[in-house]
Request: fold
Amino acid sequence: MKRIIAAIGVCLATASFAQGAEIPHTPAGHVLALFLDAMNTANAAKLQAYVTLVHGKSPPSVYLDLRTVTGDLSVLKLEKNEPDHIVAIVGESLSDDVLRVEYQVDPKDPAKVVFKQVATADRPEDLALPRLSQSEALKALNARAESLAVQDKWMGVMLIESRGRVLLEKAWGYADRAAKIPLKVSDKFRLGSMNKMFTAVAALQLVAKGRLSLDGTVGQYLLDYPNHEIARKATIRMLLTHTGGTGDIFGDAFDKHRLELKNISDYVKLYGSRAPEFPPGSQTDYSNFGFILLGAIIQKVSGEDYDDYVRKHIFEPAGMTDTGSLPETENVPGRVPGYMLKDGKWVSNAATLPWRGTPAGGGYSTLTDLLRFAHAMMDGTLLPDDLRNAATRSETKGDWYGYGFEVHGNGVAHNYGHSGGAPGMATELRIYPDAKTVIVALANVDPPLTLVSYYGNRMPLKP
Reply:
């Protein structure tokens, strides 16, 4: 497929995907046009052609899942427009959110894609939405949430605290749809990838104690790690920033062994022999398995079970009494069921869940506990200032990720946290240290969860 890019360009030459910018008829522009056309038509064959062209590992189904979160995509702005290198800000029709999409092709062989990245991004200043007063922002948020709830597109809880005062704490929808039991703001929700924050904090605590090095390799800590290239070249820093090439855990192998994967060692045994997806450190690609490896390393270095470590060194110091990763087979009071959309109906997500939460995601928590975690991050309870600051600033190309934390914004708009999304769960935490604001939203339905960014883009940044 990568050898017929010229033909792709001819097919797409008259396509229009731009609201604020034209896609150029260049080798790099053709790759961007192929991606947008495949996404907007939700065409599996076109998505497979795109995956083949960019040497992707994810099947078309992953992009189709992404489309349910983003809706249609349109180019709002070109940040770089060269024949062999394009960077576009792409808007999502289902939210205010934008993606930064980047492609580089080989100047000597324009049919060869040498770099790709599709990542969440901040709205550039020239595309920023107008800031509102606090009362106007809250009114707009409530109206948006109520509209989505009426359409059965939002069901969950949300909390906003600003300068020590809770401005909003509210629940919409049902904990049990069949029995019509309403959600409560105290309910426990599955977190998805938000667990990565806890894993990152645990690793950085061990760095602070001198027991881990950010530049130490996987093989230094896991002496018998099966794949020698990852063992020798992938570092703690790379695992924390999704640059280690360690790949995902989801797919056919996970589906086949889902209920057998009970411990971190089970994941390492299943996936540890895989070669890296790219030379460690050369690219950024979101890696759940990288955080599984961090969990294994935390266990090895601390001498404690991973779950015991995060409970003793993160949850207890932060005062988080309703957070954990107990197996799905255990009765956890207040842990609400999740619902995923199938054939137009909401059905249980139970058959998709991992056996228990992992260092990569899948635990559970509450609005109050996540607010306590945010306070413990800001006041230095969990990490020394230098490591917290390093963790919560961008460490990746595209300015979207630090050490286990998603990062957004600059100046007083700077914020960090994490989102999580999987069938039957959608979550997000954003911490604004300068604006002294915390926003948390937890849902027990499929993504997208757009309310956090909706409010964050409109809220006042100064008193």
